[in-house]
Amino acid sequence: PDPGRAEGCDLQPVTAEPPITLSYATSTVPRGCVSSSSMDTGHEVHVLSVKWSEPMLPRQIFLCWAPQDTPFPWEGGLVLAQELGRATETCLPMLGWPCRGVDAQLSSETIRAPNPEPLVVSNEGQLLAWALSNYGGITSYSELQDPRSIQLHLGEDASSPPECIPQEHFNAIQHLETEVFFHGVKGCSRSDAQSTRAAHIIHLQSESSSSITEVNLSLSCPQNSAGNQILILQSKANFTWYLSSKCSIQLMVSGSYKVSSVPMLLPGMLLPDTEQDLIAKAFEKNYSVIASYSAIPASTHISLEIRGHEMVETPVTTTPLAITQLPDLPHQVLLTLKPWKCTDETMEIIIIRSYLEPIKDVVNITLRDISCQAEKNATHFMLKSPLSHCGTSLEGRGYANNEVRGGLAGSAAL
C-alpha cells in the first residue's frame, strides 16, 4: 500500500467507550518472582496482587489451578488482601475450580482462611513480608493488571532462587497464565472520509525469542457487520490463526488461518508490518475509519468482541468511488477446495454444502455459462458438463479452462 494514504489519520487513544472488548492470554506479568523458600514448609504460597486500571471493570476473577487432580488447594490458605483505600471485593476471586470445570464457589463462606478479616497492606514489600513471616516462604508472587481469568500451575522448584525478589516484566510461565483486558486501543479516521466503513486491526508484536506460532481467536460481532466492517489480523508469516466465530465480517489475515465452520486451512496474504502501512491498507480497501488498532504481544488465545458501529451513508456523487475487490473468504474457500475434476470428456464440480457455510446465502453454483447450474441436494452441489459445453475452452497439453461461480441471494455473485 501507499503509505501516503495514511496521512491525516493520526492514531490516538480511544477515550470514549471503546468499540471493542479485547483480552489476551499471557504469562508475562508487570512484576513477579519465584523462590524455593517454601520448600520445607509443607505447603505452597502463591501471592497474587491484583490491580485495576479502570474503576468499572468487572470484579469477578475466574481462578483455576493445575494439575487437575490436586485437591482444593485453598483450605486453610486463601487470604484476602486489601490495599489501603480500596474495596475488599476488588481482590476477591469469585470462582475457583480445577481447570477442567467449575468445582468450587469461592466466597467468604467457603474460604477457610486462618485470618477471616482481609489483610490491609500499603505496598508490595509489606505484602511479601507479611506472607513470608506468616507462612515461612513464598513459592511465587505475581502482580496482575486487569485480569479476566487466572490459571495457576501448582508445584515447587528447588532450583528457584532462595528469595522472591520481584522483577519488572517477569516471565511467570512456570506457574501462571492469565487472560488480561487490553486498554491501549487507538483509532482515527481519514479527514476526507465520506463514509464510516470501519476497520479493526490486531497487530501481534512477536519477540524474537517467542515460540508462539498458533493463536486461537474467539470473535463475536453484530449481525449487521458484513460489508461495513473488516478485521485485519497481522502477525508473522509463519503464524496460524484459528478463528472461532459466527460473525459475517470481511477478513484480511497474514500467515494462514482456519475458520471453525471450514475443515481446512486457508491461505492468508502478505500484510505490511508497520502501523502506518496497515492503516494505508485499510484505506486502500475503502475502509476510511480505523475503529480500533490494537498492538498486543503474541498470545496463544485472544478474545475479541466487536460492538455495534453506526454507519453513515455515503452521499451520492456523479463519480462513484472505485472499490478494489477484496481477496475475501468466498474466493479463498473455492481456491482451497478446488472442487473441479476433469476426465477426457467431462468437467465435474462437486462441493459439500457444509463447506460453504461461512459464505452466506449461496443459492447456486455455475460455470462461466451461467445457464449451466449445479444440481443441489441436501448435502452437495454437483455439476457435470461435456468439455464442449458451458463455456469451457480447450487449451494445449490437455488443459480445459472454465470458471466456478457462485450465485448469492439478491443476485450477487462471488
Automatic annotation (TrEMBL):
Claim: Glycoprotein is one of the keywords in the record: yes
Keywords: Glycoprotein
Domain TGFBR3/Endoglin-like N-terminal positions: 26-180, 186-306
Lineage top rank: taxon: Eukaryota
Keyword presence, Protease: no
This protein's name: EGLN protein
